[in-house]
Amino acid sequence: MNSTETTPNYCDWRIEIYNCENSTFWIMEVYFSLISFALLAFSGTFIFGYRYRYMWQGLFVDHGGVGIRPLPVDCLLLFFTLAAYLRALHCLFMIIDIYTAYWQREFVQEIAWTFLSYGAVTYLVGIIYTIPVSYTNGTAGIVSLGNGVAGDKKSAFNLTTHKLFIPTPKQLNVCMAIWCLWPSLIALPCAVFSGIEKDRHNIDIASRYTAAQYIADFIFDMSFAVIAAYYGLNFAVVLKSTIKIFETNGSGFYSSGGNPTRKALHRLKYTMAYLSGLACFSGPWWLVWGLAHRQIIGSINNISIFLSINWYIAGAQPLIAVCQYVLAKRIYQKATGQTSSITSTSSSTAPILSQVTNPRSPSTPKRASFKPAVIKVDNTVDIEMSFVSDNPLTREAKLETIIAGSEPESNKWELTVVELDESGKICNEQ
């Protein structure tokens, strides 16, 4: 008889559901979790396969000298789908009672959350990654994101400036490596060691490993929540303000409430808010579980039931479902011909660019260098953030406008540098 065939002193509903108090409730939760994660795994596989079978031309972004990478949303979809498979597998193994040791239970349940973390990290870093190459020349610094024309306080474009720290691509790679290695080298091994000690009936030692595991998860979640909220809120405020400017000035490009630009910005805003909000919510509870898990699962109480519901039902599934719904909706619109396509970004941006470069005050700089940074939200819309700087040697820049085009059928992406003469007209375009 192995160690998992005996009735434990307490029922750790994360890894066992039979022969323990309130077993019927835990079994119902696991069945629901199995069905929901299996559906999400199958739908995620279909969406990912369809995108790379029929829409692959627009699913990669060129980061200049650092290479071509997939879109952040596809990284999110890939790892979330793998996590759904692993969660469904863990639930199935618990239902059919195929585990033979506690370390197996701990490993399978923790590796699923590890892949979920990979998806969130690659998405956040991928969104930030597209910006530095375009206007910081590989140098980290504080960038002022605003909408004003220098010296013109009455200008409609003169809004509050938001300062944002933009790291270099190398720094972003280091951050992504740390974030991915943190759960892989700390939380996951602690989970396995906890299971090994449970198999040896060393409950006290196993409890210490479990505490270390979830304290590490707490640190990961809170650091991710802070950084995601920092960049997400700054992006959302600036982008939303710019759209209002164009609507106020009567720009037909942004006048429609259902235009692709607005929808893309809403997807970016809501995804960042959901990721940071879920991490901020789950982080403190990981800490509570790590420090008091033996007391929580030692009896049937409200905290134990609340955490089990979030663990099996209300935690990851809504986040994965929202991600898949947005992408599935775009696939449906493409299949039914509801999306328009353009092959060149510059053709759609010309009216807006001329509106921006039109002089509004004598303080318009003689030479203004526009360096659009393409933020690839998904394959639907590429958002170009154009920056102007009086001094190209500084890293101070102001967000002058947002220009967006519809879904491209070709893989052409353009970055344009525009110089203005004294009257504000374009004198040189590269």
TrEMBL record:
Keywords, sorted A to Z: Membrane, Transmembrane, Transmembrane helix
Annotated region described as Disordered, given as residue ranges: 341-368
Organism lineage string: Eukaryota, Fungi, Fungi incertae sedis, Mucoromycota, Glomeromycotina
Domain of life: Eukaryota
UniProt key word Membrane: yes
Record-annotated membrane-spanning stretches: 30-50, 71-99, 111-131, 172-194, 214-239, 272-289, 309-328
Name of this protein: 4413_t:CDS:1
Biased composition, class Polar residues, residue ranges: 350-366
